[in-house]
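S.,

Sequence below, as promised.
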Amino acid sequence: NEDVHAIITADGWVKRIRQSNEVGSTRVREGDSVRKAHAVSTLDSIVLFTNLGNMYVMKVLEFPASSGYGVPIQK
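The prediction came back faster than expected:
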């Protein structure tokens, strides 16, 4: 159980960082930006909706813990 920020970028990349880290200084790909950063626990789940009406549930623990760019949400 860890308090983290679940980050989703405008280009659809996801990752998680510790809440002690500054969200504004997290690395994103060139031309990308942080769209949403939610303070959550690694025990929580995130629900994602597509523009086609599909719903996906993903555990925050499955988000890559990364100081890099993260991974594309399609994976």
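The two ends are 24 Å apart (CA to CA).

Coffee later?
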